[in-house]
Automatic annotation (TrEMBL):
One of its GO terms (molecular function) is ATP binding. Signal peptide: none annotated. ATP binds at residues 34, 38, 83, 88, 96, 102-104, 124-129, 185, 388. The keyword Nucleotide-binding applies. It comes from the Eukaryota. Belongs to the heat shock protein 90 family. This is Endoplasmin-like. Keywords: ATP-binding, Chaperone, Nucleotide-binding.
């Protein structure tokens, strides 16, 4: 048409498409999930508009109008996915389907640059709309925005450009009841030669069951079925019993008959119908006892757009001063490793009475250090016309917030208890630690930095967080990375009558464990925490003590052993004082510009001398770190 405009894809999209088109991607199936999830997003958005913007055009329909329809056309080799969502204007088609919209995609490209393997990455990130090109040579999108009077069509063959034009095509055919809405989006995929199996209705059914089971709008598939006359009589009988066109099949399949075609003579009828593929009762409204671990995994993946398994989850409801249901997940890989700083994940959603209100809700519900939690909260109490300010001020929200944080901490504690049990069993078997990392250790590997951030920032939860910390020490097996202890264990296995938890910080385990500062302690049988994470020293400083036992840097000037050893040390020093006085003076005279004090000490065993930090100063290691940060 004259009004057709050709656009070049943004450079990033072109690169992405190159990767997609040329990748020997083993799990192309995900394209369907991505397109269905976009359709569901568009439906969520129109529903939000219905709630918040009553006079918007074409948004005042009933719930029944919100749906997703899938059709396969084996003759044209086309697979179509249509929705009655909010649709896109011409400008939105260009902005949304011509540029990289989502951070996940940008992160994906970044990883590709580092040289990671595209096969695994596409799986990890999901590449959104562009995944259509995993299976299609040409993709056409007919869309009409709820704001717009005409539909537009976007077409691309993935060769660096696409076109957008007004179109005579409509999103829904005139015979379809959804046509009256004059709104929505239809994605048409001209399948690649090696992707023809996606024209098989059984294939589509199984993919929807697998990936899109928990989409909260009905997904219908157009099915044409040959039925013999005798089968038909039987079905009619059943239909009479069910009374109506809706037929609840044994596997929850709901059907809407569109038309029946009688074939000549041979007693066969072709029945055309829409078969509903998903059950939309939201998972969080169900009883946990009727749900399997797999159900939760699938829901987690659908909710977060991630492809990993959750490490742990909590499904609970609160009643009383505030009523809500919530579902929390711990992603098995830290989502913030793939996301730019300052960005808030999609993946924690707020629902009011089962209707999605806000999809990036982490920022409101969780302190910074807990923003990796994926999940949702569905409240019965919050007012439906929730403005931003109201959400922030609401007392109810504050209550919910507190309960969610508490529940998240409970999840961590459950993993921790499991870990302690596994450790006890390992020790019984004569091992230092479980041979396989426990779920807690997997969790700790991903999130220890955030837990430590929590110690610094979240005063209220500091004591609880302290229990979650794990350390290598002078007694853990350096060959066994799983061999770590908690502060509680440190206190439990203290041998000397010591008043302090001793620690030494440095760059590597080797550095720290071979330091002159620890040699005497080890000789006397003390356990020393070996801190090699740059955050550790600040963390201990913020904690101050653990259950009353203060932390003590072994490199500090005011360092003390347990009273008995301290006494022995004093005695040694006293007896040697006179003999060493000249040496002390000599050093002081020659080094007065670098040292402030020279002390005779019995805290070393084989090394002749060490440089220590003053009591209220930072340790040398910490000072080095701070200096490095300031540069
Ligand atoms: P994401 O869904 O993470 O935003 P996608 O690549 O999947 O990224 O989609 C890009 C954008 O295209 C979406 O954010 C949305 O604005 C738009 N879009 C895609 N599919 C539809 C649809 N069916 N209806 C309306 N908008 C859509
Ligand atoms: Mg998407």
């Amino acid at each position: 048409s004259d009004q057709e405009t050709t656009f070049q894809f943004e450079a990033e999209v072109s690169r992405l498409m190159d990767i997609i088109v040329h990748s020997l991607y083993s799990n192309r199936d995900v394209f369907l999930r991505e397109l269905i999830s976009n359709a569901a997003d568009a439906l969520d958005k129109i529903r939000m508009l219905q709630l918040t913007n009553a006079d918007a055009r074409k948004v005042d329909e009933t719930q029944e109008d919100l749906k997703i329809k899938i059709t396969v056309d084996p003759e044209r080799k086309v697979l179509e996915i249509a929705d009655t969502g909010l649709g896109m204007t011409k400008e939105e088609l260009v902005a949304n389907l011509g540029a990289v919209a989502k951070s996940g995609t940008a992160a994906f490209l970044e990883q590709m640059q580092i040289g990671a393997d595209s096969k695994n990455l596409i799986g990890q990130f999901g590449v959104g709309f562009y995944s259509a090109f995993l299976v299609a040579d040409t993709v056409s999108v007919v869309s009409q925005s709820y704001k717009d009077s005409t539909p537009h069509v976007w077409v691309s063959g993935a060769h660096g450009s696409y076109t957008v034009a007004p179109t005579d095509q409509t999103v829904f055919g005139s015979e379809e009841p959804e046509a009256k809405l004059e709104r929505g989006t239809r994605i048409m995929l001209s399948l690649k030669d090696d992707a023809m199996h996606y024209l098989d209705v059984e294939m589509i059914k199984s993919l929807v069951k697998k990936y899109s089971q928990f989409v909260s709008f009905p997904i219908y598939l157009y099915v044409s079925e040959k039925v013999t006359d005798s089968e038909k009589t039987q079905e009619l009988e059943q239909d009479k019993i069910a009374s109506g066109i809706l037929d609840e099949g044994d596997d929850d399949e709901e059907e809407i008959i569109v038309k029946e075609e009688q074939l000549a003579d041979d007693g066969i009828t072709i029945v055309h119908k829409w078969v509903k593929l998903n059950e939309q009762r939201p998972i969080w409204t169900r009883n946990p006892s009727e749900l399997s671990k797999e159900d939760y995994s699938e829901f987690y993946q659908a909710l977060s757009g991630r492809f990993d398994e959750p490490l742990h989850y909590a499904h609970f409801s609160a009643e009383g001063e505030v009523n809500f249901k919530a579902l929390l997940f711990i992603p098995s890989t830290n989502p913030y490793k793939q996301i730019k700083e300052g960005e808030v994940l999609e993946g924690f959603k707020l629902y009011l009475r089962r209707v999605l209100i806000k999809d990036t809700f982490q920022g409101t519900m969780f302190p910074t250090w807990l923003r990796f939690i994926v999940g949702l909260v569905d409240s019965d109490d919050l007012p439906i016309n929730v403005s931003r300010e109201m959400l922030q001020q609401s007392k109810l929200l504050e209550l919910i917030r507190r309960k969610l944080v508490r529940k998240a901490m409970d999840m961590f504690r459950e993993l921790m208890v499991e870990d302690q049990e596994a450790r006890a069993r390992a020790i019984e078997d004569g091992l230092d630690a479980p041979e396989e990392p426990t779920r807690y250790m997997l969790f700790y590997k991903q999130y220890s930095k955030l837990l430590k951030l929590g110690v610094l920032e979240d005063e209220g939860n500091r004591p609880r967080l302290a229990k979650l910390l794990r350390f290598r020490t002078s007694r853990t097996n350096p060959e066994q990375p799983e061999d770590v202890i908690s502060l509680a264990e440190y206190i439990d296995r203290v041998k000397n009558e010591q008043e302090y938890i001793y620690f030494h910080a440095g760059e590597t385990l080797e550095h720290v464990s071979s330091s002159p500062f620890v040699e005497k302690l080890l000789e006397l049988g003390y356990e020393v925490l070996y801190l090699t994470d740059p955050m550790d020293e600040s963390v201990l400083q913020y904690l101050g003590d653990f259950e009353g036992m203060k932390f003590m840097a072994v490199s500090k000037d005011n360092f003390k052993f347990a009273p008995a050893d301290q006494k022995e040390q004093k005695r040694l020093i006293k007896s040697a004082k006179a003999a060493y006085a000249p040496l002390k003076d000599f050093i002081m005279n020659h080094m007065s510009e670098i040292v402030s004090k020279v002390k005779l000490s019995a805290r070393l065993s084989t090394s002749p001398a060490v440089v220590t930090a003053v009591e209220y100063g930072y340790s040398p290691h910490f000072e080095m770190l701070t200096r490095a940060q300031m540069q």
